[in-house]
Write a structure and sequence with these properties.
235 residues; alpha+beta; Structural Genomics Hypothetical 15.5 Kd Protein In mrcA-pckA Intergenic Region, Chain A; Alpha-Beta Plaits; 3 domains; nine-stranded mixed sheet; four-stranded antiparallel sheet; 15 strands; 26% strand
Amino acid sequence: MRLAKYLAHAGAASRRAAEGLVRAGRVTVGGEVVRDPARDVDDDSAVALDGAPVAGPEARVVYALHKPEGVVSTARDPGGRATVVGLVPDEDRRLYPVGRLDADTTGLLLLTNDGELAHRLTHPSFEVPKTYVAVVEHPPVDELALRALREGIELEDGVTAPARARRLAPDRLELTVHEGRKRQVRRMCAAVGHPALTLQRVRLGPLRLGDLAPGAHRRLTGAEVERLRQATAPR
């Protein structure tokens, strides 16, 4: 197994973060620093992170969380702000968020120790849809704005992929995207003249936020996790 994947499966970090740990020289194999994330290892390779042995794969868990406003989508925050990981205090395994929601965005966020699943759910090549509901300024949202969102919006970092867009109310939009650019949905709304006053993610792939209360979490069932895996299957 590749070293970065081994670290992710052991719950040390997401696969992308694990690659960074390896390149930074923080990982040893058999007592020697290895900087190649593709190095082949197994349970007998004596892998260590910052000098601490990394055990083999631990049991995989996935939690659905309703992220409240003001909570940051990280495991730790240097500024001392509340984090999404801190909202699951009864879990001993090291969890990390699957992607991010801005501090001022609420809604469905997943936490897991499954680096491979996290990678597949967040990498644009797997095109996992994410649905948001935005309450916007300057209502009503007209058909011209909806058509622009559906065709793709020119942003400073390039044209967005076409989104699914529908008007739920004069001041309320539902948008489904499969990219993961920084503050993308807010920028798209602003670009069509309707900046978002509030933004909530209500769906990720086949999983819906449902009636999960703000700040609450629940562990996904095996069937739900399997549906997430199927959503990232090669097309």
